[in-house]
Amino acid sequence: MSTKDKKVDTTETSSEVATGNMATLSHKICYTRYNSPFWQVVIVSFVAFGCPGMYNALSGIGGGGQLDTTTAAKGHIALSSVSAVGNLFVAPALTNLLGPKWTILIGGLPYVLYAGSLLAYTHTGNQGFVIGSSALLGIGASLLWISQGAIMTGYPLPQQQGRMIGVFWIIFNLGGFLGSMISFGLNFHSKSGTVSDGTYIAFMCIMAVGCSCAFGLLKPYNVIREDNSRAAVDRKPRVWDEFKATLKVLRDWRVVSLIPFWITANYAYNYQQNTFNAKLFTIRTRSFNGAMYWLAQMGSSYVFGLFLDNRSMNRRQRGIWGFGITALISMIVWAGGLAAQLRRGPNSDYYPLNEMDLITSGTKYAGPFLLYFFYGCFDAVWQTLVYWTIGYLSHESPEQAARYVGAFKCMEAVGGAIASKVNSDKTNYNIEFAIDWSIVVFSLIWALPFMWKIEDLPAHAGNEDETEYVKGPTEEAVGP
């Protein structure tokens, strides 16, 4: 049966649907039904708030809160290397076989172990424990992020994906913001250069609570969209079918066009957090900077997500303008980074290492702080556009979305591993900065074929084999 032959049963739907105004309804988001895409995205957002959000808070401080950033960089190499393999062939299949609840629950537990390894490292200096737990975290992160991406891009309708990405990014990065503020408060008077034991213990508790939120997730079949369709059909996937579907994704020329764009998504983190934030500032200032970095991400992602859902433009126009805005923001922010680099060069002591402080450095602190804040804006806009492209490619199906997210996360992990290797080798920070900016420029150019071929999709475009329409909510159940 073709997509156009699938009719919505309007016998128990709203008057708006009955009169055929489905396009208007599909732009609205249901805030009252637990089985709506909105609430499922909110639930997975709180898992991300507690687990990767707290991880980001530690990373944003620089070096996982340690003065020795090399150990954290080596751990990140292990994490990214394991994730690169798991993201592509293992996590998407397990997500579709086990369902999001158990996949995300299992994926969240290694985050607690990782925070515990940093606590142990503070007292024992056991680098192997940190690297080993980072490798396990690579497995957990694969499971968590693939399932999360499938929910965020596969559950909402195309007209709602930008806002759903923004909602997730707000709640998720609220974890990084609050985690950084906790570290700021606990380490306000610290002179040691490393965070306190209480910081790690607090993070471990929050991570454990975040894992438990996964119990609130439903099967994709039980999630009902605003156009009265189910997010997926109720079927039992097979391992071989999942493997073949993943290979099909890798043969898509559009994926090839997006590979550098996806690799760049996390590439700059090592420079921003370990080379910039961790090297220039005192521990309390690093924590404060980290909080503002994630705060910048929250606002930027949501505003950009609203733009990507702009009803005054079709999807092709939104995609082209989205890439254009991302390119403009990238060039402005990294040009600011160049200005900062020139003032911290080998012949300049304008920005002395580990001495910049939000209280004692006066106006000299303002420039580096604003730059780090806008690095957060840059990252949020880039990530939001990445997930929007995945939503475009997957055509609303969470099963297909898991495969595309797996391909993205594989490329992202490869980029993260390379960046961590560059960072752990203590590469000259001017060279590291130049590599980061060059990759940003190259990835935007390489993505031009994909950008130019973006097509507008029908209001109810979906995977013909995976979309099923059912009786839907009443008008009262749909929010504004």
Helical proportion, percent range: 55-70%
Order of helices and strands: HHHHHHHHHEHHHHHHHHHE
Regions with little confidence, pLDDT below 50 for 5+ residues: 1-20, 459-480
CATH topology: Growth Hormone, Chain: A
Radius of gyration: 22 Å
Shape: globular
Strand content: under 5%
Tally of domains: 1
Oligomer: single chain
Q: Quickly give the CATH architecture.
A: Up-down Bundle
Secondary-structure-based class equals: mainly alpha
Biggest sheet character: 2 strands, antiparallel
Transmembrane segments: 38-55, 75-95, 102-122, 128-146, 167-188, 200-218, 253-271, 291-308, 320-342, 369-390, 433-452
Keywords: Membrane, Transmembrane, Transmembrane helix
Pfam families: UNC-93 (PF05978)
Subcellular location: Membrane
Structure description:
- Helix content is 68%, strand content 1%.
- The protein has 18 helices and 2 strands.
- Strands 1-2 form a two-stranded antiparallel ribbon.
- Helix 7 (127-154) packs across helix 15 (366-394) and helix 13 packs parallel to helix 15 (366-394).
- It is found in: Membrane.
